[in-house]
Amino acid sequence: MDFGRISRRHLLQGSAALTLGAAAGARPAFAADTTIGFIYVGSRDDYGYNQAHAQGAAALKKIPGLKVVEEEKVPETDAVEKTIESMINLDGATLLFPTSFGYYNPHMIKMANKFPKLRFEHCGGLWSDKDPKNAGSYFGYIDEAQYISGIVAGYTSKSGKLGFVAAKPIPQVLRNINAFALGARLANPKATTQVIFTGDWSMPVKEAEATNSLIDQGVDVLTCHVDGPKTMVENAARRGAMVCGYHVNQSPLAPKAYLTGAEWNWEALYPKFVKMIAAGESIPNFYRGGLKEEIVKTSPYGEAVSAEARKHADEVKAKFLSAEGYAIFKGGLVDNKGKTVIPAGTDRGQKDPELEKMDYLVEGVLGATS
Amino acid sequence: MADGSIGLWTVPLAVLGGAIRVSTPFLFVSLGECITERSGRINLGLEGTLVMGAMSAYGISYLSGSPWLGVLAAGITGALLGALHAGICSLPRVNDVAVGIALMLFGTGLAFYLGKPLIEPTAPRLPAIDFGWWSDIPQVRAALRVNVLFLIGVALAPILYWAFRTTRWGILIRTAGESSDAARAMGHSVLLIRLRATMVGGFLAGIGGSFLSLFYPGSWNEGLSSGQGITAVALVIFARWDPLLCLWASLAFGGAAALGPALQSVGVTSGYHLFNAAPYILTLAIMIITCSPKRTLTGAPAELSITR
Question: pTM above 0.80?
Answer without folding.
Answer: yes
